[in-house]
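Example 9 (inverse folding). The structure is encoded as follows.
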């Protein structure tokens, strides 16, 4: 059976049947290569496709009235891109490739068939959509109520925990693959301020940087500073439908 990075992602939470894996694999039948910086979707465009990210990184963003950019989400391999677009005919956000990437586009009709035939997968998508919403709510609260240092600490921890969901080799470090400007656009800071906070955390021996990787040295302290809750673990899965 062909492999699906999307089913691999979902199986990190619960085992899937062969039928469920086959259905998920169908969503990835038409992979498309995109270059770093390529616009995949523009805000207010008619929504024609949803996506599974197979390789690389993609981000969603909006441009604010003052011309600044607000990054909403960074996507990693195995992520479903398009929860927000499932409920609108016009795209509520823009999508751009943060690196060379492979995306797998599919239309809403393919998603409808998947949900009709596999209630357990539908429930998992509902769960992940809500986990994403809660994580965004956490970041919204952080933007309004916490310090610059707390925002950076929380953002790094969230990146680390999301990457660990699908990469068992990650122990205490990860490849950041984001500029300081991009981090700032995600958490409402200038690139200068992000740089200052990262250097301060290095000096305090909370993190270290080498060859594009961030190592989290004192995670407990970082969680305390960032008022951080890991939203990618301890999910209640008891209510999910039985395997089909």
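The amino acid assigned to each position is listed next.
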């Amino acid at each position: 059976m062909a492999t699906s990075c999307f089913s691999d992602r979902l199986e990190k939470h619960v085992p899937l049947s062969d039928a469920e894996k086959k259905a998920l694999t169908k969503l990835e039948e038409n992979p498309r290569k995109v270059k770093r910086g390529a616009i995949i979707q523009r805000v207010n465009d008619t929504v024609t496709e949803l996506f599974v990210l197979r390789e690389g990184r993609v981000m969603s963003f909006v441009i604010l009235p003052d011309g600044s950019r607000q990054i909403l989400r960074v996507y990693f391999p195995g992520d479903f891109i398009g929860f927000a677009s499932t409920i609108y005919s016009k795209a509520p956000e823009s999508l751009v490739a943060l690196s060379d990437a492979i995306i797998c586009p599919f239309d809403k009709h393919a998603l409808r068939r998947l949900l009709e035939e596999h209630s357990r997968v539908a429930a998992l998508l509902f769960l992940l959509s809500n986990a994403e919403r809660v994580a965004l709510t956490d970041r919204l609260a952080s933007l309004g109520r916490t310090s610059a240092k707390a925002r950076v600490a929380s953002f790094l921890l969230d990146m680390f925990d999301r990457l660990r969901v699908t990469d068992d080799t990650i122990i205490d470090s990860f490849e950041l693959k984001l500029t300081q400007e991009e981090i700032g656009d995600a958490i409402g800071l200038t690139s200068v301020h992000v740089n200052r906070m990262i250097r301060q955390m290095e000096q305090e021996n909370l993190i270290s940087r080498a060859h594009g990787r961030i190592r989290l040295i004192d995670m407990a302290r970082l969680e305390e500073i960032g008022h951080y809750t890991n939203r990618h673990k301890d999910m209640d899965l008891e209510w999910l439908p039985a395997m089909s």
